[in-house]
Design a protein that fits this description.
Chain lengths: 224, 179
Amino acid sequence: MPDSNAGAAGDATDETAVANQAPTPAGGPGAGRGNAGKPTHGKPTDGKPTIGPLQLFISFSLLTISGFGGVLPFAYRMLVEKRQWLDKTEFAELFAIAQMMPGPPILHIAQIVGHRDSGWRGGAAAVLGIITVPTLLMMVLGLAYHQLGDIAAFRKALSGMSAAAVALIIVMGIKMAVAVPRRVRPWLVVVLAFVLLGLAHVSFFIVMALLLPLSFWFAWKEPR
Amino acid sequence: MDAFFDSALWQLATHLGVLSMVAIGSGLGAVLPEVHRFVVEQHHWLSDEQFVAFYTLGQASPGPNFLYVTLIGRHVAGWWGALAVVAAVVVPSCLLTYFLVRTGVVGGDGRIQRLLKNGLAPVSAALMLSSSWVLANTVDKDWHAALLTLISLVLLLTTRIHPLWVIGAGAAIGLAGLV
């Protein structure tokens, strides 16, 4: 359905546009996306109108520029609540999968959602949506740093921002540590890895080569 | 050709590419100590201060946080360097995802997923904590800065404040010359 791109400009009107252009009888495939909350329709990909690469690119671009300090929380809001491209369970599954794959998780979520919709073009469009605008912004910031880096006020502001930004990453570390099972062996791995990487500055690859097998062995022996 | 493989850009791009493949579940946040070790301690491409500034700008700018590598790439090898490092991080992991989606491996069997999760959780948590430690050591040079970090930390943990406000407040406090 190529004209689903027509709703691209206004996000809020998108859903109604889809509902209007598909006045099929109740339960018809066209109505699927509008009432994703209802359990009446079948599998997620069945009979949904195609979103299309352009709409995917635009939607993920909008998502990424609203994502200050991490995009993932905003992904839930857009994918589940606003666009209803995924239901809660699908999002949770996708989130878990993305967390287990190498590379930035948000890229995997975007790519899988895009791929399900319109193959590799959809996947590529969604990933490009996530990175294009922020990369350009980073380049502008880089230029600003290059030009203004010697100005005292800019340096002062940046050092204050840095001190605050460190707290963000500490919070992330604490949240991840809280999620580690409270047993001796997993925590032995946490402490060992922290001492080797954070305190002793041992090379990342050496630490991974030593500790990943150990950690997997512990996980293997964990009671179910 | 040798000159190319010896170039800073090639070394940076391949290193970041490999790191993005092993940084499971966290973008490049968790491998930050290794990025720092590589570009600051080993190659001296950036000073400590520049590294932290780039990381902070990445946090303060919208989009995925790993894009702070854009600034490192630009600093090391110009605009093409910036594009090359983003491609180095994004392309390999996207190809892998494509492969996994196509072959149906994504989804997989519950036992393997649980094993992966339980095995990786302690390592990723330690990586993140090490990142915080390395950054905090670089940034918090005096007690003013350390106090600002501590107050931000308490705010973020105990309230639902948006991170951007915390960074904005940090900028204001810095401008006022308090840090």
